[in-house]
Specification:
InterPro entries: Peptidase_S54_rhomboid_dom, Rhomboid-like_sf. The protein has 253 residues and is an alpha+beta fold. It is built from eight helices and eight strands; from the N terminus they run E-H-H-H-H-H-E-E-H-H-H-E-E-E-E-E. The protein starts with a strand and ends with a strand.
Length: 253
């Protein structure tokens, strides 16, 4: 099951997002070609809880993580800024992996992959951008122009079901466990930032960046648009239709 983002405006270049994706790819292929430049640690310490997110078990795992992180990470970095975004990534990495270690203390397998961190970013995304349009893809169906909240109504229960199924089958279940824990942690963390006004300040910075006080943001993708008066408008980025009046902008289609 995949959730593909359609359009979401950003105001800065997401250097941290791009750089981390490049590191993942570089580390993965050095291990594929057995260059032995980097090794995942089996020890449980602060260093391994952070650095083991740079390692991936398979090509499909790193491909999916890179795609998801590129789609959703850039907008979270846009809201938080580069430095705070790095801190959030480290926080997610430590606590997602630590929670798994505490529940699987006797496991001798190293914790690999960034699935928990990426899911944490997705959890933050739904809080900051609940109306962004997405395409939900399953094995048999594809649904277009769904708000990300609607898509995640299907995605989250699916992660729980697979996690419990794998646990019953006595498998590691790490990937789907990290999805669930990471998502819940990111979801909670985003509400803290929302409470302290990070998203509101981000919206205002986009509005003022145009230099025109008549700028209105699309309620779906936050793309700025200078409008002459109240009325109905269509976003050129995500093609959403919305209405703007004294109460603000509200999405129509």
């Amino acid at each position: 099951m995949f959730i593909i983002e359609k359009a979401n405006h950003r105001s800065i270049t997401p250097f941290v997002t791009f750089f981390l994706i490049l590191i993942w790819i570089f580390v993965f292929f050095t291990n594929v070609f057995r260059l032995d430049l980097f090794q995942a640690s089996k020890e449980v310490d602060l260093h391994s809880l952070v650095t083991n997110i740079f390692f991936h078990k398979s090509f499909w795992e790193i491909l999916i993580n890179c795609i998801y992180f590129y789609m959703y990470g850039d907008n979270i970095e846009d809201v938080l800024g580069h430095f705070l975004f790095i801190i959030v990534l480290v926080f997610l990495s430590i606590f997602v992996n630590l929670s798994y270690v505490l529940l699987n203390w006797n496991s001798t397998l190293p914790i690999l992959g960034a699935s928990g961190v990426v899911s944490g970013i997705l959890g933050m995304y739904i809080v900051f951008f609940p109306k962004v349009k997405t395409t939900l893809i399953t094995k048999k169906f594809m649904f277009s122009d769904l708000p990300v909240v609607t898509s995640l109504i299907f995605w989250v229960p699916y992660q729980f079901i697979v996690m419990f199924w794998e646990m019953q089958a006595n498998e590691t279940a790490y990937v789907f466990y990290s999805h669930v824990v990471g998502f819940m942690l990111g979801f909670s963390l985003a509400h803290c930032f929302l409470f302290f006004g990070w998203r509101d300040r981000h919206k205002e910075s986009i509005r003022f960046s145009t230099g025109n006080l008549k700028t209105v943001l699309c309620p779906s993708c936050s793309a700025p648009k200078v409008i002459p008066s109240y009325g109905r408008y269509k976003c050129s980025s995500c093609e959403s239709e919305y209405y703007f009046d004294r109460k603000g902008s509200r999405i129509l289609f």
